């Protein structure tokens, strides 16, 4: 059959063609090296793929899914594959679907998988107090969680500035997961504070239950409870899935490990892959022992190592390996590339964070002229606050960008409002959603009326919407609010039937009944137009969702939205092609870009100061792994930078270059492109920028008039430090800065 392309095979009546249109072996194994093939065709039983960055682990998992579905006789719905982010899941699904003539797979994140399981089976799970969740449960994202916690802290009479919702939320989340490990409570918090946290935590969990709502932790914990307490349910999944595959296994936590075990319990057909050097979520409970102990936990495991990197140039790979070798807690792995040596790394030393952003913008312009598109470029930062300066620099230079972590879209007021309405249609007990929209658009319902309503509801243990629908409850409330509540309850009653309809039908009905768009347009807020556009975009999202998943309906749509976790979404539908991507290094895991910028390589920033302070050095090793992840995302070009001063919380401080820069091989840095600022080499102070002298006044196109304070470097490296009265002091590369001399200083 060699010589025929896949299309030929698929389209012919050749005897070799699979009668169901499944692809031939050759096609499934094309573009894989022998070790990768071995992993793809591995029959059954536990399989551990242990390999460094860019060696094709994710490619192997993807092909193995297709292989098992096509050749292993289990079909696509007999396979459960788990990835770390929604984006990774989507990509994997798309690739598998182009390989196979079938759709409908369980390729998702742990959270999405658990949400799906709970939608089917949560009603099996009863609690001690006789209550149970129904399949219409709401999923609370972090913002919902925090707003609920804030309300509880206030209701219990504590100070929300001392007990900040985000911190309390993080504590609760940690406790829930710790409890699962049987490790008891966090002993760090003691005394009164501890008592408060506990009370808030208890009330939080009760309130969630009463609102038929779960948070992200509950999604996983409830499935675990379901599997532990109901072996029948567990077995139905463990036998339905004949194979279980997990990517990025080094970052699974204990609960995820237990879930994986349950899923593989009937057959032991579990394939995991990972790279211990890329374990970067210990701070969130990931347990590297899961991958290190795999062979002990799953006896008889076959181990496949992949040693060839297909992603990066030699220069990039050398840099990454030089850095990671400084970790003591690791096993050395082979990793080589047959690819090109590649360009040396670019190293930039900058005056401050604004100059750093400007320098990056200049590089980007240059890379564009070399043929790279904006979509090829990514900037990864260690800490979120760095985003602001970078954005500013890109905006000034007119460079289009997008920011990953696009909960943003769903956190916008108008979208959050509409989503809350939709949630309330599906789950009338969702009090967080109720409080968000009961007075939007305004219905004259104030805090006092809501307090009365809450009291009535709490006494009778019913939700706020049910209370609002009761004329007895409303009789306690006077005036406009009374009418408002009645109108709201009536509105929700009218919309109730849309719970079982498609996402766009429900949304259209909602917009019509509430007249929300008119309200937005008529509001005098200056950004009414943007808000209208956002609503249009949301409508389009709903339509796309319906056409992609005609069976799903409103419930599945809401689930999809809820699961867009902080880590990952990249603003669906935005044209990724034409924009530079900005994201945290954590979020970049598993991705690759032709060009990567890593700014902020300074002590106490990257490595983060908490890690630098950690005497045991554990935190530092995790930071180094994070650096390794950042470096290994780059395919062709890599730019590293740091700034001598940086402002944070209004405080400007002097910075030291990161130790990770010193850990790079010197020759990679020394051979920087001629027009890169040579960070590690000595500066030549003698030959200063031609024609300019210290003290001269100059003109800059963005920063205006300024006075030259210092000149350094020569030729393409010549730089001037200029004090601009309107923009502060900047160090500029003369080659790019286009300074016009105004006159000599005195
Ligand atoms: N045998 C191969 N031939 C050519 N290209 C390959 C091969 N295997 C993988 N690649 C390519 O190499 C790149 C890295 O692969 P992949 O993302 O699967 O690696 P990974 O091990 O999952 O990386 P990470 O550790 O960063 O998650 C991808 O662009 C992939 O398409
Ligand atoms: Mg991968």
Automatic annotation (TrEMBL):
CDD domains: DEXQc_UvrD, SF1_C_UvrD. GO terms for molecular function: 3'-5' DNA helicase activity; ATP binding; ATP hydrolysis activity; DNA binding. This is DNA 3'-5' helicase. PANTHER family: ATP-DEPENDENT DNA HELICASE SRS2 (PTHR11070:SF2), UVRD / RECB / PCRA DNA HELICASE FAMILY MEMBER (PTHR11070). Residues 30-313 form the UvrD-like helicase ATP-binding domain. ATP binds at residues 51-58. It is an enzyme of class 5 (isomerase). Residues 314-590 form the UvrD-like helicase C-terminal domain. Its EC number is 5.6.2.4. It holds the Pfam family UvrD-helicase. One of its GO terms (cellular component) is DNA helicase complex. Belongs to the helicase family. UvrD subfamily. GO terms for biological process: recombinational repair. The keyword Isomerase applies. It catalyses: Couples ATP hydrolysis with the unwinding of duplex DNA by translocating in the 3'-5' direction; ATP + H2O = ADP + phosphate + H(+). InterPro entries: DExx_box_DNA_helicase_dom_sf (IPR013986), DNA_helicase_UvrD-like_C (IPR014017), DNA_helicase_UvrD/REP (IPR000212), P-loop_NTPase (IPR027417), UvrD-like_ATP-bd (IPR014016). Keywords: ATP-binding, DNA-binding, Helicase, Hydrolase, Isomerase, Nucleotide-binding. It comes from the Bacteria.
